[in-house]
Amino acid sequence: MLGAQASSLVWATPRYLHHQDRKIKGKKCLNTQTRGLIVQCNALVNHKLYQGNPVKLLQCHPQKSSSIFCNLPIILKPFSNGWRCFQSKVLELEQKSQPDEPDHKPKTTLMAQLDAFYRFTRPHTIIGTFIGIISVSLLPVQTMADLSPTFFMGILKTLLPAILMNIYVVGLNQLYDIQIDKVNKPDLPLARGDFSKKVGTAIVVTVSTLSLCMGLAFKSPPLLFALLICFLLGSAYSVDLPFLRWKKHPLLAVTCILCVRALALQLAFFVHIQNYVLGKPIMFTKSLIFGTTFMCFFVAVIALFKDIPDVDGDRHYGIQSFSVQLGQEKVFWLCISMLFMAYGCAVVIGASSPYPLSKMVTIVGHCMLASNLWLRARCIDIKNKAAVTSFYMFIWNLFYAEYFLIPFVR
């Protein structure tokens, strides 16, 4: 009886229907909003504002069911941490209460499957890999004669296996995060049901095999080394086996991402282009040292910031990210401070360049990026998940822009 009442209360409204109902009586105020599967309640009880979900309240206080149904504004006791992963509980209750009526029916048309595959590849990470490899490949170039067909063929042979390995890493993470993504990223194809787990597994196995085979076929030890590092650390980050699943430990998670994005991509691909494509002796340049150091800061920021909008699902499934442990606001301003520190160092290094063009582009470019960062950061609402997610994508845009500036550091 209680389950039937809860089902009728939460799922009676159509998907994407928004309804607000305010009722003021004494010291009690109700503000409910239904968006698809989720109902959120804000109640003022004895001068204290509590946030919650009717379904969660029914689970926590079944003995108070009559009070909850008859007088929904009366929230008698807040559960721990207020708003805590109630989305996943609603999803679980929906699956139990409506097993024969799936909420989302996957489309089988070609365009729908291509769109699902596009979302599965996490395109913003592929763009970062593509731009990063192009930028790093330009660092060993000293004269126009270096821009030969051999050089461009070497870049192509670097891009193909690297992008395939990128798809492996993000795809494997989705395979092991299906339940978490139903809370944090419900639009991803596995969480949404556009792909079955078997299809996702087939994609991951195929792209990883192709990537490693290409690395072996191209006979470049630095390239193969970079691919193996990405494969091993990407697997350790996501796979749920003893001593693995490093994403559950914040320091190990940041280290994985930093080693792949900042060290392997910068150093291994640079040596590959300089020594095995251009045929020059290995020599680290000023631009490479600057780019590697700068990207260590930037990649650490991305690794920290990506967990800020995902605290609900991470907390519920035991992912102890820094955002879960320290709080979203502290991690947000830590990331902003790290970026400003990196931009300040870049301006100083640019000012020390003996080349006027390099000096002007480096100083002006980083000042513009830092100013844009500050203007966006001071206006953001940390509690708004959509706003934080949008800001996270803005940081990726700054990441792309930095790769355009690195070759000018001379």
UniProtKB/TrEMBL annotation:
The keyword Glycoprotein does not apply. The chain crosses the membrane at residues 126-145, 151-172, 199-218, 224-244, 251-271, 283-305, 331-351, 387-406. Gene3D superfamilies: UbiA prenyltransferase. Keywords: Membrane, Transferase, Transmembrane, Transmembrane helix. InterPro entries: AtHST-like, UbiA_prenyltransferase, UbiA_sf. It is found in: Plastid, Chloroplast membrane. Belongs to the UbiA prenyltransferase family. This is Uncharacterized protein. It comes from Aquilegia coerulea.
